Amino acid sequence: MCGIVGYIGTRTAYDVLVKGLHRLEYRGYDSAGVAMISPEGKLNVYKTQGKVEDLERFCDSKDTAGTIGIAHTRWATHGEPNDINAHPHMAPGGRIALVHNGTIENYGVLREALEREGRVFRSETDTEVLVQLIEYIKETSGCSTLDAVREALREVVGAYAIAVVDLDNPGTLIGARKSSPLVIGLGEEETFLASDATPIVEYTDKVVYLNDDEIAIISRSEPLKIITTDNQPSQIDIKTLRMSVSELEKGGYPHFMLKEIFEQPRTINDCVRGRIGNSGSQVTLSGVIENKDKFLNARRIVIVACGTSWHAGLIGKRLLQEIGRIPVEVEYASEFRYSNPILDERDIVIAISQSGETADTLAAIQMAKERGAFVYGVCNVVGSSIARATDSGTYIHVGPEIGVASTKAFTGQVTVLAMLALAVGSIKGTIDKQVKADVVKGLRNLPSLITKTLKLNDQIERLSATYTYAKNFLYLGRGYNFPAALEGALKLKEISYIHAEGYPAAEMKHGPIALIDRELPTVVIAPDDEMHEKIISNIQQVKARGGSVIAVITKGDETIREIADHVLEIPQVPECLSAIITSIPLQLLAYHIAIKKGCDVDMPRNLAKSVTVE
Ligand code: F6R
Hints:
This protein is of the alpha/beta class. An 8-stranded antiparallel beta sheet has the order 3-2-4-1-10-9-11-14, with helices on one face. α3 (107-116) crosses α4 (126-141). The protein is globular and about 80 Å long. The mean pLDDT is 95. The structure holds fructose -6-phosphate (F6R). Fructose -6-phosphate is lined by residues 306-309, 353-355, 358, 361, 405-406, 490, 494, 610-611. Residues 306-309, 353-355, 358, 361, 405-406, 490, 494, 610-611 line the site of fructose -6-phosphate.
């Protein structure tokens, strides 16, 4: 996690850096800092515990002049969030400052070695080890800062994206990456560096994504140069960004999360556009067409993902099995990578990730590739590490997701997985023509069904006031809606800090039923589908024990209306797509409960959007 910004050009670097940090704050927000080289040749470093707005207050009366600088917003890994552990870290000589995203795994060994040389450390971070190592190499060998950076990076084990400024080269910014993202933005007489393109997009649409083991030398007077840590020149591959500034703003909503929930009619439209037509039942996914034989001959599919993306994966499993008739397993990427999985070239691994940067998912992909599997990505962020590491894939195209709690990415992921299942079912001939036509029609109708579902917002806002007292919540669902129950529970716990558990409704009687009393609200996802009768008896079991029930039901379901305490009515939707619709009232419920409890929904405590550490 952590966000990095760097700037060199003609503007006041501080302004660009702070604006960029606000954009990257979703990556971590427990401390923030900036380092600029002033026109007088002073390296000014300011950093403080707290959010970027705290840093701005801290810098109010400071000298922030200069047209070159680096900045950082932190999600703590090594060392608690405080002023000293905040980045940038300066080498003791006071001439080099560095910001870092990632984890230096061998920092303990390196630190001890440097301490034996008499070097004294101020912070508990792995990052300070890196900047001290750079200074040490420079001082002992007399080499340039660039060579010292290169040498130091060859000694560290782990993941990093770094940006470095030093007083000996006040016209040069150095950036480097390994397993943590770094993007360079090329403007007119100015260059930007950032963890993703969001701080860059309003200045230029020309970007270069740095690859692993590459170092960028960004100079005021010379064109961009990229070398490898082995000192070999690298190709510079300039890409054009497809992102707009308005996508990065709240657009009149109080929070990004609410904006992103309400964007879903449009994002799902963007997701299906060009992939299903305005009529007919054709589904066109270029990733499947280009790799038809892989899907035709696959022995099985293994889906790897984390968090919300893993929940989408559970729905994907059902879709691919039911429609594509391929055996599917779903694994937490963090477990899979250490499980010595049985995989070979007959297997397809589908990696699902909104950010495309999740460290565990990336590591799972690398392992799958080493074992010969074909790896297919379902990502949101274009050009992200996972999108680039996979053999092929389908973007969900829902636009930047900034709220830390994933909402529109989840519905986009499930939509892509549904299209993937249809595409695979079509080439394998495992899907009935009429079923396919119905599901494609369902996909086409999703934006309007979501618009109807969003009308529940006012009702859910009123309802949420009733439940802020709750210390625990139970979410129950069956079939396609069991993962929706898991997702609903995750949304509630991450932004309202209320403990919530998702369970398959029928499993409740094997344990969780013991928890039910007047204090435990149960959310039951009970659309009118094959499981309807069964889930009614699950609701009755809760009611019989004094529990209160909020039920998500299909419009007009009088039976459940009679027995539940509250009902949230959604429109009719094909069963295999229903989680896309049922998840929306659950997103709104979590949002409104968290707001009523006074929680910061866009930046919940301890969390960060992009988990680039193990
Ligand atoms: C929850 C949430 C996380 C992410 C998880 C994986 O709202 O956002 O659980 O889903 O960290 O992230 P990606 O999808 O970026 O790999």
